[in-house]
Amino acid sequence: MGPAHMFSSRIRPVVLFQKFFTDDVYESIVFQTNLYAEQSNAEGWTALDKKELKAFLGIIIIMGYNILPSIDLYWSSDPGFIVDEIAEIMTIKRFKKILQYFHLNDNLGQPANITDKLYKLRPLLDSINQVCLTNAKASSTQSIDESMILFKGRSSMKQYMPLKPIKRGYKVWCRCDSYTGYLYEFYLYTGKLETGTEEGLGYKVVKTLTEKLIDKALEEYHIIVTFDNFFCDYNLLQYLYENGIYSTGTVRRHRKNLPKLVKQKLKLAKGQYKWIVKGNVAFIVWQDSKEVLLLTNAFHPKVDKTTIMRTQKDGSKMAIECPLAVKEYTKRMGGVDRFDQIKSTYSVGRRSKKWWLRIFYFLLDTSITNAFLLYCQNENVTKLSNLEFRVSVARGLISGYSSRKRRSGPANYVCKRKAVLSENRQKVLHVIAEEIRYTNVGDHMPVELPSYKRCRMCSTKIKDKRSKIMCKKCGVPLCITPCFSAFHKKS
């Protein structure tokens, strides 16, 4: 069961994105940014409004998929670097001014006796976490793992993870859908609460991230949660079982309450395994290329068996026996990695002197990624790639906004071709982006062409209709009536 379809088949990507970045979020950021500029006695500051904030975020998203070495190059006079779509929205001076005073919470409002390392981000963190939960129905199979936010500066929250692609940065505990990668819940690790070794951290993380699943698991349907050996121990799986949540995880040999079977030197052939059950939890030792140790409260190793294919030295495939728990663990464990893969492809993250901006970029990326994953669940929409979805979100946020005089004509938007049926014949259209076709419709003026061209709306192979009138903004020939008006209306 994947995330719920919570939108109509004709919804625009930017509208779906704004289910995560809600009006309350925009209003809060606008208020806090203007407040911080006032508190800082900013010279030459013009009050930020909601439209300009959306355009600012649109620019940041564009910078994520149109990468240049420095921000200044997007406004460069060198035609090899300048990005007109960005440069025509606002000046670089205004962009840097907004970035300088960009703020999410009031510095003066922090209580003196409460130490919250994430105070600067707290309103947005709580908001995004809440809407991630409410915008999709919890699926029946989920995985828990850590994600990393790249950061190389100084911070007491920075972690070093040598086996991760991102080795230094902020650690985020995530609970994601096993198959789609949709992020349901997360929280940032702010460091050890006390000095010395932090005992039971993995147990606490899983317990915290599954609290909101307990009622659903007991009342609605079975939920299986999968995690790796950092989190897994006997007490955790017993706790989850008692609260109606099934789970499977690899386990480290030195964990407490494991059977004596762990300490025995077993000489098993490939595909052989041994198991033992204690309470509601089964411990499994299975021999693959290496020894695999698992705990599960979802599958019984005596009953739940299967086979998997393994490549031999001569290149042939051979089926070997395997506990079902091992195969299901492998299939269900990749949810957080899937989320990271989609999020990082066109990530908006950039270097900054402000430590918390990296986390803000993560929240922005999370909102876009979750919106994209929800969009992909709908079978009634024209499928967009991750890149096309981000382009649509960015242009939808900008929505024709400009605080400066335009220096050139309208952008030539790159769009897919779309095949439609007309009078039993297939007709290929060059689709005009909705951000151009339906925005500021009053700006779409008819102009005369030097020669007749086929009308985009009504001309077919059977019935050729031509016109000397073209929409100046869309750049398509149209009959003056009724096609010109119909083309710019959403049916």
Automatic annotation (TrEMBL):
Sequence ranges assigned to domain PiggyBac transposable element-derived protein 4 C-terminal zinc-finger in this UniProt record: 449-488
Pfam families to which the protein is assigned, alphabetical: DDE_Tnp_1_7, zf-Tnp_2
Sequence ranges assigned to domain PiggyBac transposable element-derived protein in this UniProt record: 13-372
PANTHER family named in the record: PIGGYBAC TRANSPOSABLE ELEMENT-DERIVED PROTEIN 4
Name this polypeptide is given: PiggyBac transposable element-derived protein 4
Organism: Eumeta variegata
